[in-house]
Amino acid sequence: xxxYRGNRITLLKNGAAxxxxxxxxxxxxxxxIRIEIYIFEDDVSGRAIAEALAxxxxxxxxxxxLIDGFGSLKAPETFFDAMRAAGVDVLVYRPLRGKWFPxxxxxxxxxxxxxxxDGKVGFLGGINFIDDFTENLSTTHPRYDYAVKVEGPVLxxxxxxxxxxxxxxxxxxQLRREHNGALPTxxxxxxxxxxxxxxxxxxxxxxxxxxxxxxxAISAAKSEVLIASSYFLPGRPLRQALVAxxxxxxxxxxxxxxxxxxxxxxxxxxxxxxxxLEAGIVIHEYRPAMLHAKVAVVDGWWATxxxxxxxxxxxxxxxxxxxxxxxxxxxxxxxxxxxxxxVRNAEKLEAHVWATRGMKQKLASWxxxxxxxxxxxxxxVEAE
Length: 384
Known about the structure:
The structure is a single chain. The protein has helices spanning 14-28, 44-58, 77-85, 155-174, 209-220, 236-247, 263-270, 273-278, 312-316, 328-345, 351-354, 359-378, and strands at residues 4-13, 32-37, 62-68, 89-93, 114-117, 121-125, 146-151, 194-201, 224-229, 251-257, 282-286, 294-298, 302-306, 320-326, 346-348. Helix 1 (14-28) packs parallel to helix 2, helix 2 runs parallel beside helix 3 (77-85) and helix 7 packs across helix 12. The chain has a 15-stranded mixed β-sheet with strand order 4-3-2-5-6-7-1-8-14-13-12-9-10-11-15, sandwiched between helices. The chain is α+β, with helices and mostly antiparallel strands and 384 residues long.
């Protein structure tokens, strides 16, 4: 993992902060826009982004949009055709054709959320192009999520990663090579004083990079580990790292979904609670809305924001992308935001209460875990 000096990073909480900042960057673009997104929905937020991309293309900006063929399946083809008509180059990663049935190939998705503009600014995190309240399990609270705006030399590896996937997808879907996709120059001069790293996950050279970054930070922790993950079912090595941290006297807190959009995954996750709570790990469940964040803070100086959950599909199947900040100011800001949400909107689980669950609840969790493990094995994922 290479750490780049001289960057600037801005924390963006929920769509309320993310969408205006991203739209402003798109409207200011003069040369090049590149986007990878899992969900691009035809709703108020999605249409605002689509219109901004169309405007950029019409004024001569080269706009390349890569959507995931499964994540963006709900949006009608006419929605993307309108962008194509405006000059936006739209590609679909692993489009679903014919009768859909889950296979290892079809379940390997690009789950990344990346927006790059003019070689000067990038946006990464967990926020899709979808309204905060769409399928949100709440009418009063927005989906809880984070992204970051980054500027500086760390954009160079992000551009390279996005370019490689775009070129490969172009060839596989259109049998065409990218001839006019020269990368914008990312200046090496410092624009700030933040140390940042870009960590990606794929199924070739970077299979465990994100998991290894988490494990290294947790293993080095001296005082505190805070994690928020919408889907949490880590393998044994990562769980062991968390337990080992508590044995060293590190305070480990995990914020997970209370209002679940995938109940089977939540039930499987809850099968881990008893052992984690017994080990001294503090678990909170976020209640008022859907928790979609994938972030962590360690010891108040290491932090990550990205697209990767801590479950088998993110850690061992999907393409993912995280930014890691080695910066006390940013880590402190993210920690304060997590703490505020946890205090106001999450329920702390007590080990003695959790131990009194009925046999039906325990059995449901064990069965869910078994189903997740079976499906993971079918898809070639090692779920431990």
